[in-house]
Amino acid sequence: MESKIAPLHPLVAEPAEPTGVAEIEPPILEVQHLSLSYGKHLVLKDVTLPIRRRAVTALIGPSGCGKSSFLRCLNRMNDFVPNAQITGKILFHQQDIYSAKINPIRVRRYIGMVFQRSNPFSQSIFDNVAYGLRLHRLGNKSEIADQVEISLNKVGLWQDVKDRLGMNALNLSGGQQQRVCLARAISVNPQVLLMDEPASALDPGAAEKIEDLIQELKQEYTIVQVTHNLQQAGRLSDFAGFFEEGNLIEFDTAEVIFSKPRHHLTEAYIYGGEGASRS
Length: 279
Fold this sequence. Notes:
The protein is of the alpha/beta class. It is built from ten helices and ten strands. It has one domain: P-loop containing nucleotide triphosphate hydrolases (Rossmann fold). The chain has a six-stranded mixed sheet, with helices on both faces. A four-stranded antiparallel sheet has the order 2-1-4-5, covered by helices on one side. A hairpin with a 2-residue loop joins strand 9 and strand 10. The model is unreliable at 1-9, 12-23 and 274-279 (pLDDT under 50).
């Protein structure tokens, strides 16, 4: 079943169909000299990098290095953090998402997010997935029902829950809850999915299913993922960036980052773990 929900006009015109060669496509997101501080604490320092379309970009680095804060910048989630101050630009199809003319709710419609711990609402499975569709007025009752089914199918959950859509989503297993959250995120036809360690709180079997989903979803969506699991990042990512103390130390293809990093700090982290990157 294909989606019947016509997308709203994005921040700018819809992008052309990708050519399939990431190196010659313009980035879907382009971060330019981004710095972030919480009050007097500088968290990110002059970060510049491209996010390529329909690829998985992994953000790695030791705890507290700024990678999750960076991820939240990409769809303005840091707007909810008191005393957060941002300088620089984040361009989405060449339009600055921090421009005063941009509605952050529309930004989050096109750049969705899935958090480390599953956070379904204390509502039915159906209402969880339909939430964004109703918020953005994407379709009538029948179209919303169709889109809920499509989204649950995409995350491999439809067959498990189709006969109990009215059940509270909190009664599902942890892995199923996380897939409901993924379905909720993709139901509104985003272009980018941000994932903050989406499998770290799950058991190995559920985590493996989320990994498989990421591989499938990148055929339709651009994915940016924060992870501490270097093996997972190596398996799933096309590009990777290594952060250290708020600085982007190195950004390159995953092949370079995980097999022949150019910077000694990246090499120490990849081969020595978190402690070695501090040496």
